[in-house]
Amino acid sequence: MFGSWGVVWAFPVVMVLAVMVGAWATAGLVERMGGSPWFGIAFLFNPGLFYSYRRGTVDVAAVALLVLGVYLVSLHRYRPAGLTLAAAVLAKEVMVLGAIGLALHVRRDGRRVIPVAAGPAVAVLVWGVYVRLRLGEAAWTTGVDTLTGPFQGVIPVVIGYPAVSSVVALVVLGWAGLTVIQAVRQPNVALSAALGFALLLPVLPEAVWVGYVDAWRAAAPLYALGVVCVVSSRAGSRRRPARETEPAPA
């Protein structure tokens, strides 16, 4: 209907909207956890999303939807959260790790875990069946065979590749390690969603770490959710206790 002009402008318009949604959800999540909503602007300074936009990928939309899903879970809006997480998984399959973390976060109440888990699960199933019928291969195994043992892909990069790749690898892995430690010590909704991405990073293949751009892209969800935790924990310790609460009774 819009011709070639619409095709050219559709992607940047969608990405701008995704950035707005991601920044708004980040602001709400930070405030929900005791920090200042002004830190929602941190979503704009995610290196992985910057490189993803330059490459024309959908990472920006996928991460924005994931953060929005986390925010909705923190508000106990479980059905909208499930639908949002389903959209995130359809945008990029690896977002299912965040959905799994959120489902585990609310697992104590079976009535609430179902809507959170059902949306992403159905999305994965439908997409997998579609890819199987159209391409004759399983969508959920794509890329899994490239994973390595823990740190086998990153160690050669840290030792033998240019400084930029080495530094980025160490920064990303350090951030992942801190996320795991904090998730064990003081779990919250954002850390629960981020934990799967932190555990994935050490088993990524060497090709991801050699091109530091791909390393930043792989860490984009971890950065988006980790910033929320860092900012809110610092601000909350100075101002007021965190406002995240247990799920309210139905």
Q: What descriptive keywords fit this protein?
A:
single chain, 71% helix, mainly alpha, 12 helices, 250 residues, globular, disordered C terminus
State the helicity in percent bands. over 70%
- Poorly predicted parts: 240-250
Q: What is the mean pLDDT? A: 83
Largest sheet: none
The beta-strand count equals 0
Helix count, DSSP H or I runs of 4 or more residues: 12
Describe this structure in words.
- The protein has 250 residues and is mainly alpha-helical.
- The protein has one domain.
- Helix 2 packs across helix 11, helix 3 runs antiparallel to helix 4 and helix 9 packs antiparallel against helix 12.
- It is globular.
How are the secondary structure elements laid out?
Elements: H1 3-32, H2 47-55, H3 59-74, H4 78-91, H5 96-105, H6 110-135, H7 155-160, H8 163-185, H9 189-200, H10 206-210, H11 212-218, H12 220-238
Describe, in short, the structure shown:
This protein has twelve helices and no strands. It is an all-alpha fold and 250 residues long. It has one domain (3-238).
